[in-house]
Amino acid sequence: MNMQANHKTRGLSFIIIFCILSVVLFFTLTNTVAADQTIYKEVTVKHGDSLWSIATDYKDETPRLTKQAFIDWVKNENGLVRDQIVPNQKLIIPVKKNK
């Protein structure tokens, strides 16, 4: 009977520790993403824009990135699955904000 109580206590401790770690991880990731977004420019997509044209517009400000690397970064940071963007959509781009 005592062994069964030990297993319950151990299981409950595991659950509590897991929940605490999950909450800490969530807040850490949320703060990191928010911090990253504040240092990069946000652009609003205009009619006729494409990821390729935006990469071309900012090529002088991102000399270390190829156009494809720029596009891949934008897709990853903005959660885009396809290359399709629409007017008035907000995109974070790999160009640091001016202070």
TrEMBL record:
PROSITE patterns reported for this sequence: LYSM (PS51782)
Keyword Cell cycle annotated: yes
Xref: Gene3D superfamilies: LysM domain
Ribonucleoprotein found in the keyword field: no
A Pfam family it matches: LysM
Domain of life: Bacteria
Biological process terms in GO annotation: cell division
UniProt protein name: Cell division suppressor protein YneA
Lineage, broadest ranks: Bacteria, Bacillati, Bacillota, Bacilli, Bacillales
Chain's gene name: yneA
